[in-house]
């Protein structure tokens, strides 16, 4: 069963398609986030139950091995500007000294603003 995607708000084209979290129109190139499912938005919680949002700062609560490398993300490492995604590793982030990676929310704690 396929979901019916909304028409493009710019040109009205019915040929929209989804790329990650964005909807894209192949005719005019317009990209937008679907607003219809915002009530069912992804709710991600950290290791102590705090709700995480895009752009939050978190700290790592456990030493984490980086897959395919001998590097380790040490406990206490601050990660700024996280982005929430769907999947097993529900946080996308950039860690200085390591680079872009995915983290599981169960291994982080939100830093108070």
UniProtKB/TrEMBL annotation:
UniProt family annotation: Belongs to the YjdM family.
A Pfam family assignment: YjdM
Protein name: Zinc ribbon domain-containing protein YjdM
Organism whose genome encodes this protein: Paracoccus niistensis
Origin superkingdom: Bacteria
InterPro entries to which the protein is assigned, alphabetical: YjdM, YjdM_C, YjdM_N
Alphabetical list of NCBIfam families matching this protein: phnA
PANTHER family in the record: PROTEIN YJDM, PROTEIN YJDM-RELATED
Domain Protein YjdM C-terminal span(s) in chain numbering: 44-111
Protein YjdM N-terminal domain segment(s): 5-33
């Amino acid at each position: 069963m396929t979901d019916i995607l909304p028409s493009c708000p710019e040109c009205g084209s019915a040929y929209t398609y989804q790329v990650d979290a964005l909807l894209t129109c192949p005719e005019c190139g317009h990209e937008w986030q679907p607003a219809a499912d915002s009530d069912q938005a992804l709710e991600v919680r950290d290791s102590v139950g705090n709700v995480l949002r895009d752009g939050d700062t978190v700290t790592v609560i456990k030493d984490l091995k980086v897959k395919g490398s001998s590097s380790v993300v040490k406990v206490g490492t601050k990660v700024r500007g996280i982005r929430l995604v769907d999947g097993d590793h529900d946080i996308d982030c950039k860690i200085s000294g390591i680079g872009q990676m995915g983290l599981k929310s169960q291994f982080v704690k939100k830093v108070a603003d």
